[in-house]
Known about the structure:
The complex is a heterodimer. By secondary structure, chain A is mainly β.
Amino acid sequence: DQQVKQNSPSLSVQEGRISILNCDYTNSMFDYFLWYKKYPAEGPTFLISISSIKDKNEDGRFTVFLNKSAKHLSLHIVPSQPGDSAVYFCAASVSGTYKYIFGTGTRLKVLA
Amino acid sequence: KAGVTQTPRYLIKTRGQQVTLSCSPISGHRSVSWYQQTPGQGLQFLFEYFSETQRNKGNFPGRFSGRQFSNSRSEMNVSTLELGDSALYLCASSESSGVHEQYFGPGTRLTVT
């Protein structure tokens, strides 16, 4: 039972344009969401997070949007840069469970 | 501060053997989590430790176990290895129970032949 789903295995975007990565979840108890970026041969790197009490969080070029009614979150990267090419994972947690459920990842390729 | 370190980085074992992987968290971090990453499956949660206590466990068989020491370093052990245990094993640490952001190590690549 995949509680966190990233339905697009890959995405290609031109440099300078917006990248939108999507994530859906099924467990309405999730109240904290995170995005990670992973380069080959490295561990995931934390990018940005959002609590369920918010619907948007920004950090520089990265913005995460949360739609609780649709159980959907998205990561926007503007403008996209070639260095953003990596696999992006979303993750979700229920506070107090100390357990994080990850999606299967979306491979982003930013074309120069 | 030094990041999360994992040893060894690469390991080749034979079916039926056992293996122990080690993780040293960022200094001051008391929570350590372990994940298994396989192609197409993303990161699967194994277990989480805080102050030497396991607080949650994922859906893995009992062959997978772990522990945490008083200095917050953690080990995970897999007994009676199977071919399907071949994966990247990632360790992540965070400051305390109230902080969600986890910082990952580079992982240990385990190959079972």
